[in-house]
């Protein structure tokens, strides 16, 4: 089983709320604080308080900063150097780097520049660096392998920033939220901060419902302000995934029914769907209204690829409507291993169930190529390669 976390964000998300929820869910605060002091940053400390937001008890984690420690104009390179110079575990620095790269890409798109030329303002300050790194470290300390996040509330109104008065969510935050479900709760303040958006959209998979898990902990992280009519808390569920023979995950199934398209167009359509991130695509013949023959095109993808596949279907097919639904699936862990056979080296897909090898399958494209080169029946090469692959792989264990 894998340790998973689900962030429930009815009141939004910020870096300090994420860190507070993880501490409240059991991430050891002293270990978190001590490890973060390995960053090449001075003049700050991490403190925690138990607070109330509405009727909820929650943990508030704050980065207390000496005035001299503020530095408002760091580049991505500056922040990467701070991370690389730390004594943090390598997976933590790698994930924190990805978060800041995503932030830089979002800002670069908004301002029409490149990630290396972006000047971070508030996001480059000490508290933001600690918040982002602390969120990643908290997940690491809890042993979380997979993260999910609920739909995120957009908020509304206006805020004053380094570039003047801006609508909420700010342009950078809005860019980060692309591809993730969002909702309007009617609260007209900033609910999702740039750091909160960057952490969750980089590390988490969107999920309209909590994933199936055996729940082991629930943590509440407090926001700074009191919100009208709603407790300003972020809730984190931590547990063990409920598996049935393999790792479970959420996928999306998109479908559209077509009855007026040339069959020649299906090949480029399917190719583009795979390029856009489809995990699988298949066609099913159906009989439609007025006895018309038609085709149901089905594509499977990760939740964050729905928008990309929708665009391809509208651009490359004659459909005017696409439907989709979420599904849970169990997938066996697999790897590609190249084995030496009597036909030469052939890549094999090897899958395991609870550590035991259950399939050793040669890649068919290589089998077909070898059969053409040697003027042999494809079935003969396939059967022989499969038999040799299982034997050779078994001998190598």
List its salient traits.
397 residues, Ubiquitin-like (UB roll), 11 helices, Alpha-Beta Plaits, five-stranded mixed β-sheet, alpha+beta
Description of the molecule:
With 397 residues, this protein is of the alpha+beta class. It has three domains: 3-241, no CATH class; 247-331, Alpha-Beta Plaits; 334-396, Ubiquitin-like (UB roll). The protein has helices at 15-24, 29-36, 76-84, 90-111, 126-142, 171-176, 194-203, 266-275, 306-316, 364-374, 378-396; strands spanning 3-8, 44-53, 56-65, 146-149, 152-153, 158-161, 164-167, 182-183, 204-206, 213-222, 233-241, 247-258, 280-287, 293-301, 323-331, 334-341, 344-353, 356-362. Strands 9-4-1-11-10 form a five-stranded mixed β-sheet. Helix 10 crosses helix 11. The longest helix is centred in the first third of the chain and has 22 residues, at 90-111. The mean pLDDT is 90.
> What's the quaternary structure here?
single chain
Instruction: Return residue spans where pLDDT drops below 50 for at least 5 consecutive residues.
Output: none
Succession of helices and strands: EHHEEHHHEEEEHEHEEEEHEEHEEEEHH
Strand content range = 25-35%
> Could you tell me the radius of gyration in angstroms?
25 Å
Assign a percent range to the helix content: 25-40%
Number of helices: 11
Distance between the termini: 23 Å
SSE class: alpha+beta
Give the averaged pLDDT, no decimals: 90
Number of extended strands: 18
Total domain count: 3
